[in-house]
Design goal:
alpha+beta, Immunoglobulin-like, 7-stranded antiparallel sheet, 4-stranded antiparallel sheet, 11 strands
């Protein structure tokens, strides 16, 4: 299709140029005006040609595999001020891939990432999943209950609300804008079991469900590659 458009534009371009030089005008002024008109038209058609030609060097979508997440892991020094400061290091996929999207079925916007805290003294590793939930409602829903499946076994747990923002400015007829940051601690063995299911280059998702105290539950996910990248980084630390 683009080749046909290109040929037609090139033909029109050549026709315009030919008419400019073959046109026999009676007056110099009239001829100059027509030359200017045809040159303008030719330049316009040339610009159309550049727009109509498809860009073959378009950027390809990124591959959300293990390598992608591994180079985007963040590391920070943990521990509160005082004698515990600097005794832990935190690895996180917070900068890996923003999953934030509107889930119209549940009327929420959600994002998630996973992190691991390593105790430098004992080498103990603690994994946690961070879920960010935004919605508009009159009442707080508190998505603190998690349900998930690992190797065919269903499990459930309760999380901790670490941050909550409420904005009731503007029209309150449909409720306030609310944002909840929920953290779920996961057993190291459970996380490593999920990582074992990773196949090189895959973009498979490990899904889990968040249930609120009030309202419908909704399903969200982490990439298996994201989890595997974190586990490998911890093992290599």
């Amino acid at each position: 299709m683009f080749n046909i458009i290109e040929l037609n534009i090139r033909y029109a371009y050549k026709l315009c140029i030919t008419k400019v030089f073959n046109f026999k005008a009676h007056g110099v002024m009239q001829k100059n005006r027509l030359i200017f008109f045809y040159l303008f038209l030719a330049l316009f058609l040339q610009s159309c040609l550049s727009v109509s030609t498809p860009n073959t060097s378009a950027t390809q979508p990124v591959s959300l595999d293990k390598a992608y997440f591994k180079i985007r892991l963040t590391t920070t020094t943990g521990g509160s001020d005082g004698e515990n400061h600097g005794k832990t290091i935190i690895f996180s996929t917070i900068n890996g891939y923003n999953k934030q999207r509107l889930l119209t079925q549940y009327n929420v916007i959600g994002d998630s990432y996973i992190s691991a805290t390593v105790n430098k003294t004992t080498d103990e590793v603690t994994y946690q999943i961070d879920s960010i939930i935004e919605y508009k409602d009159h009442d707080a829903r508190l998505y603190k209950h998690i349900n998930y499946t690992v190797n065919g076994r269903q499990q459930s747990d309760d999380g901790t609300l670490v941050d909550q923002l409420v904005d009731c400015k503007g029209n309150q007829y449909s409720g306030c804008l609310r944002k909840e940051h929920i953290v779920f601690t996961m057993a190291q063995q459970t996380i490593e079991q999920i990582a074992k299911n990773y196949t090189e280059g895959s973009q498979d998702k490990w899904r889990y469900t968040l249930s609120p105290d009030v309202g419908k539950s909704y399903s969200t996910y982490l990439f298996v590659a994201e989890i595997t990248a974190l586990v490998e980084a911890i093992n290599e630390y």
